[in-house]
Amino acid sequence: MLSHTYVALLTYITNVMALWPQPAEVSTGSGVLWLDPALTATFRCNGGDVVLFDYPPDLGKLPVLGFVNSAYQFAQTVWDEFQAFAGNHDFHGSKKAITETSIAQAAVHETIKSMHNTNFVPWKLHKRHSPFEPDVMAQRHYLSSLQIQQSHCPDVGAFDPLAFFAGDESYEIMIDNATATIQTNSTIGALWALQTFQQFFYAHSTHSGSYMLGTPARIVDRPKWRHRGLSVDIARNPFRPSDLTRTIDAMARTKMNRLHIHATDSQSWPLEIPSLPDLATKGAYQPHLVWSADSLEAIQIHGASRGVSVFVEIDMPGHTASVANAYPDLIAAYNRLDWSTFAAEPLSGQLKLNSTAVLTFVTTLLEDLLPRTRPYTSLYHIGGDEVNLAAYLLDETVASDEPQVLRPLLQKFIDHVIGIALQHGFQPVVWEEMLLDWNLTLPSVTNDNRKVSTLVQVWRNSERIKDVLKKGHRVIFGDYHHWYLDCGFGVFLEPYPSGKSPVGVPYNTSGGYPSKLKKPYLDYCNPFHNWRHIYTYDPLANISADLIDNIEGGEVLMWSEQTDSIDLDFKLWPRVAAAAEVLWTGVRHETMLEDASRRLGEWREREVTDHHTAMSPVHMTWCLMEGGCNL
Ligand SMILES: *[C@@H]1O[C@H](CO)[C@@H](O)[C@H](O)[C@H]1NC(C)=O
Ligand SMILES: *[C@@H]1O[C@H](CO)[C@@H](O)[C@H](O)[C@H]1NC(C)=O
Ligand SMILES: *[C@@H]1O[C@H](CO)[C@@H](O)[C@H](O)[C@H]1NC(C)=O
Ligand SMILES: *[C@@H]1O[C@H](CO)[C@@H](O)[C@H](O)[C@H]1NC(C)=O
Ligand SMILES: *[C@@H]1O[C@H](CO)[C@@H](O)[C@H](O)[C@H]1NC(C)=O
Ligand SMILES: *[C@@H]1O[C@H](CO)[C@@H](O)[C@H](O)[C@H]1NC(C)=O
């Protein structure tokens, strides 16, 4: 039974469900449902024939518990004990097996927990002093049952990242009277449905209990693109594994599903490679900043449990000066004073190109790393950007900067790396230069086998999306003019004190950066790309319809010359969420900004209230309250 006040109120709430990212289809009624403290859930599969698990869990199978005083608290305590028992968040513990069923079970429990525990009172989304909450004196109707029905049962065997992440991501949610029904064809679809579900519930400002508006409701949803990624550079400045687990959680709440770790670069090598221990012990900024093999695995497991495929990039052959801390003989043009001739930023140094020692090193490295990441992802990023020609003049194994001389050697190097990746069942990802500047031959989609079609990541210019597609490759977009998150914070270099080059160093002839530094010290990709800019970037502009099917998706990228653990969240959010809606819902337009600022504004308020993710407001509070501020 709805109160009179409440029915009147709904007439000026234009969008009852402010969901982010926007689902494909939403239809809502005008009812209210409170969350039953004794809500039960059942996960069925195989067309409903098989009960995979129930919520609350079967107590007989779990550790005995102490005193608790409500059905809800009881269920949650059981679950927390179960989590502690399973050790899902233990970075130093022994290896744990995950399965699709354990992932689904954890997702159901965490969703129900967060629905009950939400503290989010959406006062900012309503006019000042308006009554926006359901009347607590009215009779309450409760949502008491959640039924998840998956058409196929998950494999009972070992977790298979290829099958899991390539699953049908579509889902349907129906809420009617006391029951919510979720329909999916795969576990990954169920995870996204549960993420949407969490966004339904609000806390009441004066009374206990969570409620949702707009019932009965039906949501039908599916993603536009398969690859919805964020790239984080953990090499230029120090990061901790917990920075990425926290990021994964927020990504999953926007249905982002790929975390690309740019794990090493010229400035530091934080990643432990047990068979080449000196790489990290000598190449990390400090011993305590080494990312152990166990911590990488824990991040990948955490990602898989959230539907996020966590994959690693060891950028090669450029961006490798940090290898010289351990293996100086493998690196050419190491740490030159005139670095700008040999690298895009200090310090210079890249792997020698015609060296069996380098190929042996690469084999040892990849035979160690790749079998460890493959249980949780089917992607491996081989790097390949910004290979510097001049560095090979100083490389005694080639002593040439002629593209015609270097190209066959680079092809051999890349064939070597991709060959190892393919042996381990990876789909390789490569930066655009390998295809577009060096014209290398890369395993192509034309053989119709997704596992061996190289994904080409475009960063320099949107026109190159088309160039990659025309060469028959699948593409990941992320043009720096639009989707780099590090832009607009200013240049990170100083002008040379005398205003000249160091003595004997001809770096001004190479168009070197330092001589160009002037107030106000803007960076190369300024201005700052605010969320509206990211949101309205159209990767399909100028691309003909016959080519767009080969777009795998996109990534926003966080390069870290001026970012570390302290400011990471501020720089990621809410802008990653803006990209997430482009990737999930499809290309956005300027006319959608008004609606987006309200929904993203609500997403931000929920995120900071319930998850304490640091980020700036999406809007001035008054604008949110008034339903927008237009020019
Ligand atoms: C599941 O698969 C069926 C058959 O391909 C399809 O019609 C449906 O849209 C898919 N998604 C959901 C949520 O049922
Ligand atoms: C929901 O409740 C209404 C009113 O009690 C009833 O008419 C309707 O059939 C119910 N719907 C379902 C799906 O049970
Ligand atoms: C590469 O190294 C081999 C063996 O040292 C040498 O014979 C060959 O000339 C080198 N290639 C180039 C392009 O320098
Ligand atoms: C690659 O092909 C383009 C276009 O044909 C050409 O301009 C370029 O020089 C080639 N690069 C190399 C390294 O051969
Ligand atoms: C599309 O092409 C036009 C005209 O060449 C150009 O101005 C625009 O920047 C292009 N857009 C993208 C996203 O590449
Ligand atoms: C740049 O190089 C030229 C010749 O190589 C030299 O005459 C000039 O002084 C240099 N300028 C600076 C700012 O170093």
Kindly describe this structure.
- It holds the Pfam family Glyco_hydro_20.
- The active site is at residue 386.
- One of its GO terms (cellular component) is membrane.
- Residues 226-586 form the Glycoside hydrolase family 20 catalytic domain.
- It is an enzyme of class 3 (hydrolase).
- The protein is an alpha/beta fold.
- It has three domains: 4-221, 2-Layer Sandwich (Chitobiase, domain 2), CATH 3.30.379; 227-488 and 523-588, TIM Barrel, CATH 3.20.20.80; 493-522, no CATH class.
- It contains 18 helices and 17 strands.
- It has helices at residues 4-10, 71-86, 100-117, 161-165, 187-198, 241-252, 278-283, 293-305, 356-373, 403-423, 433-436, 463-470, 480-483, 531-535, 568-572, 575-585, 593-611, 621-626, and strands at 25-45, 50-55, 142-150, 171-176, 179-184, 202-203, 210-221, 227-233, 258-264, 309-314, 331-332, 350-351, 379-381, 427-431, 455-457, 474-477, 551-558.
- The chain has an eight-stranded parallel β-sheet with strand order 10-9-8-17-16-15-14-13. Strands 1-3-5-4-7 form a five-stranded mixed beta barrel. The chain has a two-stranded antiparallel sheet with strand order 11-12.
- A hairpin with a 2-residue loop joins β4 (171-176) and β5.
- α3 (100-117) packs parallel to α5, α6 (241-252) runs parallel beside α8 and α9 runs parallel beside α10 (403-423).
- It is globular, with a radius of gyration of 26 Å.
- The relative contact order is 0.11.
- Bound molecules: 2-acetamido-2-deoxy-beta-D-glucopyranose (6 copies).
- One 2-acetamido-2-deoxy-beta-D-glucopyranose binds at residues 354, 397-398, 405.
